[in-house]
C-alpha cells in the first residue's frame, strides 16, 4: 500500500518567540534551526524579516540545509500597491525558499481590524500570492482565525482559501488562532473545505488553549490536510501550539497514521527526538517536563512493585511504544511502594552487580522505605539513590570530608545607598589530608553554599568546573516551627547531563547542603575520579 506524504512545518522561531519569558537571539535561532533539521522537518519558519533586528539578521542568509527556509509576513496592506508595501518587500527580498503570509479570513476582522471591504481583502490575497510566485518562491497563506471565520460566514472563509489556491499558493493553512475549536468541529469543517480546496494543498495550525492542539491536528489530517504546523515542546503564546515532539511519534508509530502516511522523519531521526526536546529546553534554560509524552523522564516510568515485575517480563504489555524508538528509556522507580523487582531492575540499570538473593538488597529496600517515611524522595533524586545503593553495598569512594560549614545572611545598604541582602558561606573540607577553606557569596544562602563548596576541592576541581545548579525545589513536609524540609536539587554539567539529589532536615540550609554534597560526590564518582588518599583509612565508604 502506497502511503501519502505528510509535510511537517516548524514555527518555533516565530510562534515560539511569542512565549512569555522567551527571547531568542540570532545565535539561539541558528542553534534551534539545527535541532529542527535533525528531525527531518520539511519547513522551518524563521521569523519575519524586516519586523525586528533579530529576524532581519537571521534572514541575512539562508539558514537551512534541507528544510524549506520560510519567511513569515502579511498580505499586501489594504489601499496600497504591491510596490508601496515595504513590509511585504522585505519578505519577498529575503533568501527564503518559501514565503508564508498571514491573511484575514474572518469577515469581522476584515471590516473592523483592516477597515477594508471583503472584496478588497480577497484581491489582496490573490495579488500577494502572485507576487510570491513571480519571484520563484513557494507561496503559502495562513488563514488567520479560519475556524471562527467559517462559523461566522462559511462562504467568505472558504472564498479566502479558494482565492489563495487559485492564485497559485502551494499551501493554504487553516489556523485555529485562538485555540478554541474542538476536534469534531475541526474534522467537519476541514472536510467541507476540502471539497473546494484540494486536501493535498491544505495545512493545519492549531493552538492549545483547550488542550486539544494535538487532537485537532490529527483530526485535520483525517479530514484531508497534508501539512501540519507546530513547535518544539509546544512553545507558543498563551497555552502554546501543537507540540511537534508529541505529534511526530504519534504520526510515526500509531495506527492508522503510520499505515497511511509517511513524513520526512525517518527511524534514525525519531530516535533522536528525546535528545532534541531536552536540548531545546537546555537552550531555554528550563527543566524538561518530566511527564511529557514520549520524551519525558517519567514517560516510561513505573512505581508499583507489581507492575514493575510484569514490565520486566513483558514490557510490550505495559508500554504503548518501545521507549528506545523515541530515544527514551524505561525507568523502574525506587520508592516506598517498590518491591524487590524494582530494586533489582534499578540496580542493574545503574551497573551495580548484585546477586538476586543477596540479603543487602532487602536491607537497601528497607532503608529506602524508612527514609521515605521520614521525607526523602528517591524517585525524584536518582543520583542520591545511586549513592545510597552503593553505600549500602560498600562501593562509594570518599573524595572529600566536610568538616564544617557556616552561612551568614546580612541585610544592609550598599555603596550607592540601595538596601540589599547578601549571603556569605564558608565551607571547610579535607582533601587528601589537607584542610581547604573556601568562602562564597550568593543571592541566597544555598547559592552561597554552592559557590563555596565548588570553589576549591583541590585536585578534584577540574571535574566540577563545568557543574552548576540547574533547579532548586523546596517542600515543607509538616507544619509548625519544627517542620521537616525536603530539598530537591537538579545539577547539570557542560555536556548537558542532568542529575538530581535530595536532602532532608528541619533546617532548610542543612537539607540543601546535603543535596549539594551528594551532587558533587555523584559527579566525581561518574567522572572516575580517584578517591581521597588518607593514611590509615580505606578510601571506600561502607555506610
UniProtKB/TrEMBL annotation:
Checking PROSITE patterns in the record gives: AIPM_HOMOCIT_SYNTH_1 (PS00815), AIPM_HOMOCIT_SYNTH_2 (PS00816), PYR_CT (PS50991)
Instruction: Write the Enzyme Commission number(s) for this entry.
Output: 2.3.3.21
EC class of the enzyme, as a word: transferase
Q: Give the catalysed reaction(s), semicolon-separated.
A: pyruvate + acetyl-CoA + H2O = (3R)-citramalate + CoA + H(+)
**Alphabetized UniProt keyword annotations:** Amino-acid biosynthesis, Branched-chain amino acid biosynthesis, Isoleucine biosynthesis, Transferase
Q: Which domain of life is it from?
A: Bacteria
Q: Which Pfam families match?
A: HCS_D2, HMGL-like, LeuA_dimer
Which organism encodes this protein?
Answer: Microbaculum marinum
Is the keyword Hydrolase in the record?
Answer: no
Pyruvate carboxyltransferase domain residues: 6-271
User: What's a single GO MF annotation on this record?
Assistant: (R)-citramalate synthase activity
In terms of SUPFAM superfamilies, this protein maps to: 2-isopropylmalate synthase LeuA, allosteric (dimerisation) domain, Aldolase
Q: Which GO terms are recorded in the biological process aspect for this UniProt protein?
A: isoleucine biosynthetic process; L-leucine biosynthetic process
- State the protein's name: Citramalate synthase
InterPro entries to which the protein is assigned, alphabetical: 2-isopropylmalate_synth_dimer, AIPM/Hcit_synth_CS, Aldolase_TIM, Citramal_synthase, LeuA/HCS_post-cat, LeuA_allosteric_dom_sf, PYR_CT
Amino acid at each position: 500500500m502506497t502511503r501519502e506524504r505528510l509535510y511537517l512545518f516548524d514555527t518555533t522561531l516565530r510562534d515560539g518567540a511569542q512565549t512569555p519569558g522567551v527571547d531568542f537571539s540570532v545565535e539561539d535561532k541558528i542553534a534551534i534551526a539545527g535541532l529542527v533539521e535533525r528531525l527531518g522537518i520539511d519547513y522551518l519558519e524563521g521569523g519575519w524579516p524586516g519586523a525586528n533586528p533579530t529576524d532581519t539578521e537571521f534572514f541575512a542568509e539562508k539558514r537551512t540545509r534541507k528544510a524549506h527556509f520560510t519567511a513569515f509576513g502579511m498580505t499586501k496592506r489594504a489601499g496600497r500597491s504591491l510596490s508601496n508595501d515595504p513590509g511585504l518587500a522585505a519578505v519577498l527580498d529575503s533568501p527564503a525558499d518559501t514565503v508564508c503570509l498571514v491573511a484575514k479570513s474572518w469577515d469581522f476582522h476584515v471590516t473592523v481590524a483592516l477597515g477594508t471591504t471583503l472584496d478588497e481583502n480577497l484581491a489582496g490575497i490573490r495579488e500577494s500570492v502572485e507576487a510570491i510566485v513571480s519571484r520563484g518562491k513557494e507561496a503559502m497563506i495562513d488563514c488567520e482565525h479560519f475556524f471562527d471565520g467559517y462559523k461566522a460566514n462559511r462562504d467568505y472563509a472558504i472564498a479566502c482559501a479558494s482565492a489563495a489556491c487559485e492564485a497559485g499558493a502551494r499551501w493554504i493553512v487553516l489556523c485555529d488562532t485562538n485555540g478554541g475549536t474542538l476536534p469534531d468541529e475541526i474534522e467537519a469543517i476541514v472536510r467541507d473545505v476540502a471539497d473546494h480546496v484540494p486536501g493535498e494543498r491544505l495545512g493545519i495550525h492549531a493552538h492549545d488553549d483547550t488542550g486539544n492542539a494535538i487532537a485537532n491536528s490529527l483530526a485535520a489530517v483525517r479530514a484531508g490536510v497534508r501539512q501540519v504546523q507546530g513547535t518544539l515542546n509546544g512553545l507558543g503564546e498563551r497555552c502554546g501550539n501543537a507540540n511537534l515532539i508529541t505529534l511526530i511519534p504519534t504520526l510515526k508509530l500509531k495506527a492508522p497514521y503510520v499505515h497511511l502516511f509517511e513524513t520526512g522523519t525517518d527511524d534514525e531521526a525519531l530516535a533522536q527526538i528525546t535528545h532534541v526536546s531536552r536540548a531545546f529546553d537546555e537552550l531555554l534554560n528550563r527543566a524538561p517536563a518530566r511527564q511529557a509524552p514520549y520524551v519525558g523522564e517519567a514517560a516510561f516510568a513505573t512505581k508499583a512493585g507489581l507492575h514493575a515485575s510484569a514490565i520486566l517480563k513483558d514490557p510490550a504489555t505495559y508500554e504503548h511504544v518501545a521507549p528506545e524508538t523515541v530515544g527514551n528509556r524505561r525507568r523502574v522507580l525506587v520508592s516506598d511502594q517498590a518491591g524487590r523487582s524494582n530494586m533489582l531492575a534499578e540496580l542493574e540499570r545503574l551497573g551495580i552487580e548484585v546477586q538476586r538473593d543477596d540479603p543487602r538488597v532487602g536491607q537497601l529496600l528497607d532503608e529506602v522505605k524508612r527514609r521515605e517515611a521520614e521525607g526523602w524522595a528517591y524517585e525524584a533524586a536518582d543520583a542520591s539513590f545511586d549513592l545510597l545503593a552503593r553505600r549500602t553495598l560498600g562501593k562509594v569512594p570518599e573524595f572529600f570530608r566536610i568538616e564544617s560549614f557556616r552561612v551568614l545572611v546580612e541585610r544592609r545598604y550598599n555603596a550607592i545607598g540601595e538596601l540589599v541582602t547578601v549571603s556569605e558561606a564558608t565551607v571547610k573540607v579535607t582533601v587528601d589530608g589537607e584542610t581547604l577553606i573556601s568562602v562564597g557569596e550568593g543571592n541566597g544562602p544555598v547559592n552561597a553554599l554552592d559557590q563555596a563548596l565548588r570553589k576549591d576541592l583541590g585536585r578534584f576541581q577540574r571535574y566540577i568546573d563545568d557543574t552548576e545548579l540547574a533547579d532548586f525545589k523546596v517542600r515543607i513536609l509538616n507544619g509548625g516551627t519544627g517542620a521537616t524540609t525536603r530539598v530537591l536539587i537538579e545539577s547539570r554539567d557542560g555536556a548537558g547531563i542532568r542529575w538530581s539529589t535530595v536532602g532532608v532536615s528541619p533546617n532548610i540550609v542543612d537539607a540543601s547542603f546535603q543535596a549539594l554534597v551528594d551532587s558533587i560526590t555523584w559527579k566525581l564518582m561518574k567522572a572516575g575520579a580517584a578517591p581521597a588518599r588518607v593514611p590509615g583509612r580505606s578510601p571506600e565508604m561502607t555506610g
